[in-house]
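Hey, resending since the last one bounced:
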Amino acid sequence: MGAGRKLSRTIFGEKVGEFKDASTYAKPGVKGKVIDVKVFSRKETDKDRQTQLREDAKIKEAEKVCACKYELINQRKTKKFVKFYEAGL
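The structure tokens again:
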């Protein structure tokens, strides 16, 4: 059992199952900068109450921000329409 597999088993337990290491490695002596990192996680089926409450709060906050932006856009659209309409009279 390789070191990566042991680490995965330690972190995730027996859920790991079979996996293929598809990582890309740079050749020795190559220098560069990391430009993007993606973190993958298993989709959780059961969430505890605190986690669900936090997610619900984040969703409500995002909906509130979206509603405010939507209202602002409608107000600006109405003002422009009124100016356009008044200019035509």
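The chain has a mean pLDDT of 81.

Sorry for the duplicate.
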